[in-house]
């Protein structure tokens, strides 16, 4: 299977038919069970909200994955959920323990930000328990009240609502990058 490269003004974001590994690529249906396992490992530790298999299949097109070598089980995942005409969310960022600290989280987020630029979306937010990771990438803390689309679409269904303990962060893609 071959996909064209997604490009923005900062260069190539990802190429699905690259022979170079490790690589970041769009998720495919065969990745869902491994993604589910990674996400729920961190959800059990209270670091992420759990995702059902059904939810992952429903939103498969939202996700990028980390593939260490051809045919191997993926080792990371991150999604870009579109919330509104000019607003998207970085969601479900998780890297397997053995691949953490190697820059793959940054690369997955960069792929999502590249896709947001490609789609013409200028504001990207995240709700996270690890704000420092995103602050280092230019995100700024915001009040959750500036995210009404997220609150009405997803937060009302969350078991932690209305006592959300995640930090809301926003990145304006029109501003110069760090």
General description of the model:
- By secondary structure, this protein is of the alpha+beta class.
- It has a single domain, classed as 3-Layer(aba) Sandwich (Aminopeptidase), CATH 3.40.630.
- It has 5 helices and 9 strands.
- The N terminus is likely disordered.
Sheet/helix structural class = alpha+beta
Distance between the termini: 35 Å
Shape: globular
Number of domains: 1
Our estimate of the beta-strand percent is 25-35%
Number of H/I helices: 5
> Could you state the oligomeric state of the chains shown?
single chain
CATH architecture: 3-Layer(aba) Sandwich
Mean pLDDT, rounded to whole units?
A: 84
Instruction: Write the CATH homologous superfamily.
Output: Gcn5-related N-acetyltransferase (GNAT)
Q: Which series of helices and strands comes N to C?
A: EEEHHEEEHEHEHE
Question: What strand line-up does the widest sheet have?
Answer: 3-4-5-6-7-9-8
Helix content: 25-40%
- How is the biggest beta sheet arranged? 7 strands, mixed
Structural key phrases:
single chain; about 180 residues; Aminopeptidase; seven-stranded mixed β-sheet; two-stranded antiparallel ribbon; globular; disordered N terminus
Topology:
Blueprint: E1 6-8, E2 11-14, E3 23-26, H1 32-44, H2 53-58, E4 63-67, E5 76-84, E6 87-95, H3 104-118, E7 123-128, H4 131-135, E8 140-141, H5 148-153, E9 167-172
């Amino acid at each position: 299977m071959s996909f064209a490269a997604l490009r923005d003004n900062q260069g190539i974001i990802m190429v699905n038919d690259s022979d170079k590994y490790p690589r970041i690529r769009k998720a495919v249906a065969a990745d869902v069970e491994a993604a589910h396992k990674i996400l729920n490992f961190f959800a059990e530790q209270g670091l992420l909200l759990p995702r059902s298999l059904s939810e992952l299949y429903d939103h498969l097109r939202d996700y990028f994955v980390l593939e260490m070598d051809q045919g191997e089980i993926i080792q990371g995942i991150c999604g870009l959920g579109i919330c509104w005409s000019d607003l998207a969310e970085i969601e479900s960022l998780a890297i397997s323990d053995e691949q953490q600290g190697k820059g793959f989280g940054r690369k997955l987020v960069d792929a999502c930000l590249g896709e947001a630029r490609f789609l013409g979306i200028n504001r990207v937010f995240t709700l996270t328990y690890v704000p420092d990771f995103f602050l280092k990438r230019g995100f700024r803390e915001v009040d959750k009240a500036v995210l009404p689309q997220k609150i009405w679409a997803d937060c009302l269904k969350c078991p932690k609502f209305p006592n959300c303990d995640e930090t809301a962060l926003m990145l304006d893609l029109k501003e110069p990058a760090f």
